[in-house]
């Protein structure tokens, strides 16, 4: 099943807030419903957010066909629902460019974005698997962070798609899923996707990653991105930078897998990217808190970036 799709006049998503306990499908009919789903992370992950943004414009175009002011406001709400993954605003803008041609043209563009992400996942899986074999040989033991599978894209995924491909080729030596505090995308979502495919894996607390690398239990780190800047800096889920430092110290490859739709050549470097802070409630009821949802991994810690079209070695 697709994580996100347009079905009978509404956006259908798998609700990622209730996995792995329950596989629940939500039907979203309005822009406020879609924005709430984006902000609660019911739909999440950079490629899926791009598709969600485009479908959001399709919803807005239907509801506000006769009210240009309301339409503009609705499109802006979708575009700014979350600030960090470049795919969201990019998906919104691409679909919104079709507004003068009417709601059906907008929907067609949104479906094209969905289909492009499906194709991109396939291309990245194959290219990424080739690269891991080149860098680490056969039977590599990989550590991944956050969730970069079909749940974060439309199907298959980015970094986790590479893991699936290596498993299919019989070349996977093991997977450690970093739990990904505080919302546990690794422990809940990545672990669920790996189990669905019958892939043996272990979950580790985020802070164990660099130590496991130092102890020689990891051959490469492979993960996704929410934005890749012009200089190769990688913005991804908080905890990524620590894994990059650990990989550098242990002398193992640090590989990022992301579609071209995540590459943002308009942003020169990571310090220019708005980093979402999700507030204290997700961490602690007892105290004020700082809760950045993403971090910046400087390009010199990145061995390679695999996209659907190329391998970039920053
Ligand atoms: O806050 P999230 O869960 O949307 O963050 C997602 C990530 O950081 C992923 O690693 C990234 O989007 C890559 S998804 C293929």
Automatic annotation (TrEMBL):
Keyword Isomerase belongs to the record: yes
UniProt entry tagged with the keyword Cytoplasm: no
EC top class, as a word: isomerase
Keywords: Isomerase
Pfam family, one: IF-2B
EC number: 5.3.1.23
Gene3D superfamilies on file: translation initiation factor eif-2b, domain 1, Translation initiation factor eif-2b, domain 2
One MF term in the entry's GO annotations: S-methyl-5-thioribose-1-phosphate isomerase activity
Cross-referenced PANTHER family: METHYLTHIORIBOSE-1-PHOSPHATE ISOMERASE (PTHR43475:SF1)
Family per record: Belongs to the eIF-2B alpha/beta/delta subunits family.
Stated name of the protein: S-methyl-5-thioribose-1-phosphate isomerase
Protein source organism: Paractinoplanes rhizophilus
